[in-house]
Amino acid sequence: MRSYARIFSYLTAYKARIALYFIFILLSILFSIVSIGMLMPFLQLIFTGKEALPPISGNNYILYSVNHFLQQRVEQEGQLAALAIICWLMILLIAAKNLFLYLAYYTLNPIKHQLVNQLREDLYDKVLQLPIGYFNEKRKGDLMSRMTNDVNEVEVSVIGALEGWIRDPLNIVLTLVFLFTISMPLTLFILILIPVLGLVIGRITRSLKKISNEVAQKFGETLGVLDETLGGLRVIKAFGVESSLREKFKQGNDRLRIARNRIGYRRDLASPLSEVMGVALFTAVLYYGGKLVLQEQLLEASVFIGFLGIFYNMINPAKALSTSFSNMRKGSAAIGRLEEILHAPITVEEVANAVTLTEFTHSIEFKNVRFSYGDVLILDGIDLVIPKGKTIALVGASGSGKSTLADLVPRFHDVSAGEVLIDGINIKNCSLRSLRSLMSIVTQEPIVFNDTIAANIALGQPHATDEEIAKAARIANAHSFILEKEEGYQTNIGDRGTKLSGGERQRLTIARALLKNPPILILDEATSSLDTESERLVQDAINKMMQQRTSIVIAHRLSTIRHADEIIVLQKGKIAERGKHEELIAQNGIYKKLVEWQAVR
């Protein structure tokens, strides 16, 4: 049950509601049992015309009281009046049973829905907290599968069975207690046979968890192929690989179908098998009880029929309980996959009593910084000082550590050794919010959201006025194309900005960075994927944005960083060369080769 610990922890906030549910369901069960128990006096009155005698055990106070009351009515008003009383009592008891059943569901339903909401919110919060490196190891399709399919599985299989965890065991226990008061030998006979039913159902449900986990994995793989297809349709069509992608998706989908069939066969077997076992148990009770009536005369026929009615009322809760356990087995696999996310370590954590940075006044400093990703050393012995107001360019071959070095400043990763300091304060001792409030980042791939142009520009400044948004757009060379849109700043740009060109999307991200007005800029190859005209407009916007700011520029096109205050050339995670453009050209080293190579291109 440890896998359900999180679900139970959510329930602690609803103790009062759960107690109320318990009371309502208890009353519903009691009224249900008593209403069926009314069959006994009804049958005796109909078939014998005599008083409905109490059971042989003589210890069922409820039935004894009903018998005594009916006997008085027969003597005073006749048998037909007593029969009418029984019918009215049965109607009232059934109505009371269903009233309290409705109140129980009315009490429980908000709890179930809130549990699912809380689980989704916890997952989303954890995704926001996890470091960037975590998502480099995971397929996006698998993560989406966990947050959709697995959450739905928990909702249906585990939380959907929540009501049965209280209702069905309580129903079975109370029914057995009532049956004991009617006939102890017959009830003991039932208790001997019930474990057999449990063992048979248990053998089926034990395999469900393993197969459920397999289904979830196959679904994640299929969703991953779909995500890659939607993101790369232009390339797929351009290279004519539709058939191979179709085959890849078909194979994954077929594996998913086979796994789902396997789990369906076992899950669907639980209900009919439990029904067959239940009927077998009922007929065994029917035979043994008949023997008590016909041979040993330990029971009256009317009492035995009432006993059977109450016992049959217990079979459905027993079936529901066995189905709940099979669903819980199936749902535990989904919970396990969700717990992998919820228990994933947060490697970038905020210390207690963290320093709040309110301004940037002096410098960013790297002191003997090393960074490893797993067993792979990415950065080794980086010593670098970036004074306020200066522009530092990072260049080097792919995989040399440029982006990783820039990502250390906003603490997207934490250093493996050494320190990163802002104004002499180790950034590990700073609050993440205040640290990142000093920075804006413009990436190679412009990240925009399915919202209006104004909302995208004001992403980090939700209270910005229309004038402030428009001012940032003008500096970013975006204002003119925005006004050409039918709805201007209120134009929705579509999923991932598909209604805009690459250059237009990039200028929006620059306007967003400008509106935030940070003292530190991190520019990660912001113009490398643009055409010449778009690059000119974007580069002009970047030059305006960099004025009087401290900038870390990851350069792909070396022509854009000729005027940087210092150029850092990285090779295999180390600083190989450093200096101004002219100084590095004069060294006739790595940087000069990179410049010449780009010139040839």
Q: What would your notes on this structure say?
A:
The protein is an alpha/beta fold and 601 residues long. It has 2 domains: 2-342, ABC transporter type 1, transmembrane domain (ABC transporter transmembrane region fold, Up-down Bundle), CATH 1.20.1560; 363-600, 3-Layer(aba) Sandwich (Rossmann fold), CATH 3.40.50. 64% of the residues lie in helices and 10% in strands. The protein contains 22 helices and 10 strands. It has helices at 5-11, 15-37, 39-47, 61-77, 79-129, 132-137, 140-158, 162-182, 184-205, 208-231, 233-238, 242-294, 301-342, 402-408, 432-437, 453-457, 466-475, 479-484, 502-516, 532-546, 581-587, 590-600, and strands at residues 363-373, 376-387, 391-396, 417-422, 425-426, 439-442, 520-524, 550-554, 566-571, 574-579. The strands form 2 sheets. It has a 6-stranded mixed sheet, with helices on both faces. The protein has a 4-stranded antiparallel sheet with strand order 2-1-4-5, with helices on one face. A hairpin with a 2-residue loop joins strand 1 (363-373) and strand 2. Helix 3 runs antiparallel to helix 5 and helix 9 packs parallel to helix 13 (301-342). It is elongated, with a radius of gyration of 36 Å. The two termini are 63 Å apart. Residues 50-59 have low confidence and may be disordered.
